[in-house]
Fold this protein.
Amino acid sequence: MSRRFFRHGELPLVVLALVAERPRHGYEVMGELDRLFGPGYRPSPGSVYPAIEALQTEGLIDGEVGDGRTTYRTTATGETALAARSDALAALELRTGARLTRGDSIEPVLARFKARLARLSGNVDREAVAAVLERAAIEIESLNGHPTPEGEDR
């Protein structure tokens, strides 16, 4: 019995994330999948194009034909769906080690952090975790050169 690399619903989510990063045609999506997840996963037209078609059917991406190929981009509905699935995307990133979310926002980093710690819930001292997170928040705030004054709500 072969073990599937992606879990149920993950491949379309990854494709949506890749197309949200920038418009791509199908073979660009396959190349990026290979770069991110190879050699453990080898994309094929038989898996990638049905995922693309499903995303189109749901109205999450649309395609524009030009130069003999179709370039896909996310729709507003797709952007909303991707934001709603940020926890699932973070869990996939944590499981695979791939980084699908880029940009200046720390939201993807926080989502991966949350996914990583969620499995510890109930198994660690809540107050100790709160103290560690408070110290981490103070240190992170200092990264911009302007720490939050003591006593100010965070």
Notes: Strands lie at 24-25, 61-66, 69-74. The first strand starts at residue 24 and ends at 25. The chain has a mean pLDDT of 86.
